[in-house]
């Protein structure tokens, strides 16, 4: 039996990135979008990255979320080998608090875009939501779930500072 490829791949440079990247997975779960997560590193597993990125589109993935910290080359290198949209999440690093990750991901040369999110958990969460928004362009049911999510979020923000 073959199982269908989920629309979203969440790749990350190390297992240590998962506590951050899990927030992307949680956002996708909330919106009813399936995903697969893999540890893939441009530095430590270059062949695994090459194999993943060059076959991701034909495998059936539609959006790639790539998280990495420090010298975060993973999102850009993945983007260089696939036409799928790549959403980059800068994972917070110890030494430079994620500024290194952010700049490594954001400062791509013209012609090879990576859509760069905020540093850390909020960036990962937004990557999940943004991936769902991209998929919702051709999925009305998902567009409806996104609208409901936004409405519930708005509803949950009270104007008063006390209950
Ligand atoms: N930035 C990259 C890449 C890459 O860009 O290919 N591979 C691993 N890493 C990052 O190294 C950090 C420390 O990794 P370890 O915790 O495994 O030492 C992680 O945040 C990972 O994303």
TrEMBL record:
| Residues reported in the UniProt entry to bind substrate | 14, 17, 44
Instruction: Give the range the annotation lists for the signal sequence.
Output: none
Q: Where is the PurE domain?
A: 6-157
Per UniProt, which keywords does this protein have? Isomerase, Purine biosynthesis
Q: Which reaction does it catalyse?
A: 5-carboxyamino-1-(5-phospho-D-ribosyl)imidazole + H(+) = 5-amino-1-(5-phospho-D-ribosyl)imidazole-4-carboxylate
The EC class name is isomerase
> What are its E.C. numbers?
5.4.99.18
> Would you say which domain of life the source belongs to?
Bacteria
Among the GO molecular function terms of this UniProt record, one is: 5-(carboxyamino)imidazole ribonucleotide mutase activity
Cited PANTHER family:
PHOSPHORIBOSYLAMINOIMIDAZOLE CARBOXYLASE, PHOSPHORIBOSYLAMINOIMIDAZOLE CARBOXYLASE CATALYTIC SUBUNIT
For this chain, the family text in UniProt reads: Belongs to the AIR carboxylase family. Class I subfamily.
Question: Which NCBIfam families does the UniProt entry name for this protein?
Answer: purE
Q: Protein name, please?
A: N5-carboxyaminoimidazole ribonucleotide mutase
């Amino acid at each position: 039996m073959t199982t269908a490829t989920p629309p979203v791949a969440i790749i990350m440079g190390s297992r240590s990135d998962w506590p951050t990247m899990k927030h992307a997975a949680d956002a996708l779960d909330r919106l009813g979008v399936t995903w697969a997560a893999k540890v893939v590193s441009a530095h430590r597993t270059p062949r695994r990255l090459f194999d993943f990125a060059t076959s991701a589109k034909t495998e059936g993935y539609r959006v790639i979320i790539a998280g990495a910290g420090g010298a975060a080359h993973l999102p850009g290198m993945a983007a260089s080998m696939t036409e799928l949209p790549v959403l980059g999440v800068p994972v917070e690093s110890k030494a430079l608090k994620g500024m290194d990750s952010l700049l490594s991901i954001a400062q791509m040369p013209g012609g090879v875009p990576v859509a760069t999110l905020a540093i850390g958990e909020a960036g990962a969460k937004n990557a999940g939501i943004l991936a769902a928004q991209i998929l919702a362009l051709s999925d009305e049911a998902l567009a409806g779930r996104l609208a409901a999510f936004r409405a519930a979020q708005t509803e949950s923000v009270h104007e008063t500072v006390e209950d």
